[in-house]
Amino acid sequence: MIAQFTAAGDGLAYDICIVGGGTVGLAIAAALENAKLRVCVLEAGGRWQTNRSQELYHGIVADPLVHPPVQNFRIRALGGSSRAWGGRCVPFDSIDFQKREWVCNSGWPITYETLLPYYRRAHEVIEVGSYDYDPTSALPGSRVELFE
């Protein structure tokens, strides 16, 4: 159900409230669909983006010669920025999670192996085939090797 609430205290009760109807928020809502929980997804925009809602994203970028205006790629509507997304993502490699003295603020509290089941599940959700990346290859299927 998609509803628009204008008054506080509508009397509705939910088990879980997800803030943001973008890619992640909608994926979480879909994952909870069969959990017999009442789930509310709060989205600041409507079903479609409007000039009025997009005005909230106008801002200043550090270098306009390098970065496009923020309102071009942040969408305030159901689906969020996925409405303007080209669909190219590259997963992190194991080394990205490790503490490296030469990389400021490196090191994550989780490992690549911890994240791996979620990568696999994300592939299922967006229907992009099996998760079979080779981090030693520069491009999928290429014979060009990465330098260590």
Q: Figure out the total of helices.
A: 3
Structural class by secondary-structure content: mainly alpha
Report the helical percentage: 10-25%
Number of domains: 2
Radius of gyration: 20 Å
Helix-strand sequence: EHEHH
The number of E-state strands comes to 2
User: How much β-strand is present in the residues?
Assistant: 5-15%
- On the 0 to 100 scale, the average pLDDT is 81
Oligomer: single chain
Give start-end ranges of low-pLDDT stretches: none
Distance between the termini: 51 Å
- How would you sum up the global shape? globular
Widest sheet: strand ordering: 1-2
What does this molecule look like?
The protein is mainly alpha-helical and 148 residues long. The chain folds into two domains: 1-88, no CATH class; 90-148, no CATH class. The chain has three helices and two strands. The chain has a two-stranded parallel sheet. Strand 1 (16-19), helix 1 (23-31) and strand 2 (39-42) form a beta-alpha-beta unit. The chain is globular, with a radius of gyration of 20 Å. The mean pLDDT is 81.
